[in-house]
């Protein structure tokens, strides 16, 4: 070997992170080529929890596909319920009572707060702080109690139906939700005092994992990842669905493009979700919660239908092709984390390994939703 | 004394000579009261596993809160979620890496039988952890509540020591809430 070639030869080695690794939030595997402490190339390998959701959509009736919606992204299952309900209502032309739409928004936003709380706690735990998780889980259990009282389950909700919701909410739920908001609002400034201002956390997050808006567009990243890169894009505003246009809320956007910005977007979204819930509770109309005359065996007319919602991790959209029978011809699920994690390969080049894990946590991946 | 008269490793030791029963019981009691589960979340059930270790449910009351990220330090594998064909070899390796004695809890319907993802003609999901692992305790639910996981751990303790340390509550005596 000539001396020139020798000098260009770098010593790299391969490292496997996962599929069982506490920092990957599940069974994501990342194959990393390391150059010392720095990442040369990182390749996320998916498929360790592929559960055939799309295939299941095609071999069972429309109603039988409901339970799958709770098991895609189990942390914001309500948004996924919302998407499927909206999709089929658009396909079959079902009018939804207004009260049902308000209940959908209230439960979906409670679910979003719960998801961000767990994301916050687990993220700080990844970075080495254990106590914030306990605070976050304490608040989260309050939300789960409320949602359990109306839906009957703690995590994998199957609450929405074509044309409405399964159960009406009662006074206990409404007073409980108001009491929760009163209790939760002062908690967020406390989290900022306890966690955000911490010098170690700031050192680990500020400037780490920069993602430009262009890179987000290139990979189709959405949700807090996109809004942390200074792009004001939220399906609730840009392609409004349900009763969101009638409600009063802001979209938090940060221009810093780093992990701290994404973390702050999530924290601010919790405040905005509180606003939405309070607003919706004040405007909650009386009336039925199920549309009349929804056929049990739904047969939407032939066609190609699409519906998108803003889940806790970004845009979730469903597209289905109906051939006029009681099953779907093709069910396509577009999951936000899949696109968000796709940019990991490009963004993590030349990053320290420890920074890369802090960066991965800021994308807040949920693996079963990514693999579908 | 010739070397022929010394017992070798292969030769059986008379049982009357060595009696460690009491000591074994003590060791099993110690093990049962400090089970160290492997931090190994596969899907939705992992969130309930996390919940049971956190505020409110507080698994440390039962001595099982030390979730270890490495299989070499843990003695209970809680299979919390769906195992698919790509994940199966990894689960096997993790189980083999755990030191003896070790136990397996199948948490949730997916780990019991494939759950909602098992149907005729499915192509990817392994229908139950007991198809390749010796499962000790099954916890049904989709996902099981944290209380159910705690009950499963108590069942496992009973299996290890032969005694249940917490009184069993009969369903008919429970207060209806």
What level of helicity do the residues of chain A show? 40-55%
What would you call the shape of chain B? globular
Got a strand count of chain B? 3
Largest interface: chains, residues each: A-B, 34 and 34 residues
What do the pLDDT scores of chain B average to?
A: 85
CATH C-level category of chain A: Mainly Alpha
Question: First CA to last CA of chain B: what distance?
Answer: 76 Å
Corresponding CATH superfamily of chain A: Cytochrome-c3 Hydrogenase, chain B
Query: How many structural domains of chain A?
Result: 1
Rg over C-alpha atoms of chain A, rounded to the nearest angstrom: 22 Å
Structural class of chain A, by secondary structure, is alpha+beta
Helix share bin of chain B = 25-40%
Individual helix count of chain B: 5
Reading side by side through the largest sheet of chain A, how are the strands ordered? 1-2-3
- Do you know the CATH topology of chain A? Cytochrome-c3 Hydrogenase, chain B
Biggest sheet features of chain B: 3 strands, parallel
Tally of contiguous helical segments of chain A: 17
In N-to-C order, the SSE pattern of chain B is HHEHEHEH
| Biggest sheet descriptor of chain A | 3 strands, antiparallel
Give the averaged pLDDT of chain A, no decimals: 89
Write structural notes for this entry.
The complex is a heterodimer of chains A (372) and B (177). Chain A starts with a helix and ends with a helix. Chain A has a 3-stranded antiparallel beta sheet with strand order 1-2-3. A 3-stranded antiparallel beta sheet of chain A has the order 6-7-8. Chain A has a single domain, classed as Cytochrome-c3 Hydrogenase, chain B. Chain A is 48% helix and 13% strand. Chain A contains 17 helices and 8 strands. Chain B has 177 residues and is mainly α. Chain B contains 5 helices and 3 strands. A 3-stranded parallel beta sheet of chain B has the order 1-2-3. In chain B, helix 1 runs antiparallel to helix 5 and helix 2 packs across helix 5. At the A-B interface, helix 6 of A face helix 2 of B.
């Amino acid at each position: 070997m000539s001396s020139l070639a020798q000098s260009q030869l770098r010593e790299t080695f391969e490292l496997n992170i996962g599929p069982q690794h506490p920092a990957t939030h599940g069974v994501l595997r990342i194959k990393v080529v390391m150059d010392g402490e720095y990442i040369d190339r990182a390749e996320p390998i998916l498929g360790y929890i592929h559960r055939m959701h799309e295939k299941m959509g095609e071999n069972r009736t429309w109603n039988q596909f409901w339970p799958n919606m709770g098991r895609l992204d189990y942390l914001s299952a309500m948004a996924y319920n919302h998407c499927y309900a909206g999709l089929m209502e658009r396909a079959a032309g079902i009018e939804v009572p207004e009260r049902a739409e308000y209940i959908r928004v209230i439960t979906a936003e409670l679910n979003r707060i719960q998801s961000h709380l767990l994301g916050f706690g687990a993220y700080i735990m990844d970075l080495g702080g254990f106590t914030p998780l306990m605070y976050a889980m304490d608040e989260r259990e309050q939300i789960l109690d409320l949602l359990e009282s109306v839906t009957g389950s703690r995590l994998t909700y199957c609450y929405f139906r074509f044309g409405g919701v399964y159960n009406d909410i009662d006074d206990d739920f409404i007073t409980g939700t108001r009491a929760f908001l009163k209790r939760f609002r002062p908690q967020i400034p406390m989290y900022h005092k306890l966690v955000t201002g911490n010098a170690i956390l700031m050192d680990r997050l500020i400037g780490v994992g920069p993602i430009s808006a262009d890179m987000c567009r290139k990979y189709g990243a959405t949700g807090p990842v996109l809004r942390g890169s200074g792009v004001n894009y939220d399906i609730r505003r840009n392609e409004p669905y349900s009763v969101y246009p009638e409600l009063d809320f802001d979209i938090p956007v940060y221009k810093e493009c780093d992990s701290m910005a994404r973390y702050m977007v999530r924290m601010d979204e919790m405040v905005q979700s509180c606003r939405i819930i309070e607003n919706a509770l004040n405007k909650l109309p009386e009336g039925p919660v199920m549309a009349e005359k929804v056929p049990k065996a739904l047969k939407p007319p032939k066609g190609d239908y699409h519906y998108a919602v803003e889940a806790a991790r970004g845009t979730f959209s469903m597209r289905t092709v109906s051939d006029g029978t009681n099953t779907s011809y093709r069910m396509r699920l577009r999951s936000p984390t899949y696109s968000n994690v796709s940019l990991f390969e490009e963004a993590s080049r030349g990053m320290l390994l420890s920074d890369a894990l802090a960066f991965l946590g800021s994308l807040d991946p949920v693996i079963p939703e990514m693999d579908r | 004394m010739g070397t022929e008269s010394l017992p070798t490793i292969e030769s059986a030791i008379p049982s009357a000579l060595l009696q460690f029963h009491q000591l074994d019981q003590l060791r099993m009691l110690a093990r049962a009261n400090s089970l160290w589960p492997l931090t190994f979340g596969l899907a939705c059930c992992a969130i309930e596993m996390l919940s049971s270790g956190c505020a409110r449910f507080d698994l440390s009351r039962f001595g099982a809160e030390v979730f270890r990220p490495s299989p070499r330090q843990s003695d209970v594998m809680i299979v919390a979620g769906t195992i698919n064909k790509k994940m199966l070899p990894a689960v096997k390796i993790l189980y083999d890496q755990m030191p003896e004695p070790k136990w397996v809890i199948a948490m949730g319907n997916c780990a019991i039988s494939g759950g909602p993802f098992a149907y005729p003609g499915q192509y990817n999901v392994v229908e139950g952890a007991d198809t390749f692992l010796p499962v000790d305790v099954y916890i049904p639910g989709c996902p099981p509540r944290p209380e159910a996981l705690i009950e499963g751990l108590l069942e496992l303790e009973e299996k290890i020591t032969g005694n249940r340390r917490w009184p069993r509550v009969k369903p008919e005596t429970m207060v209806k809430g």
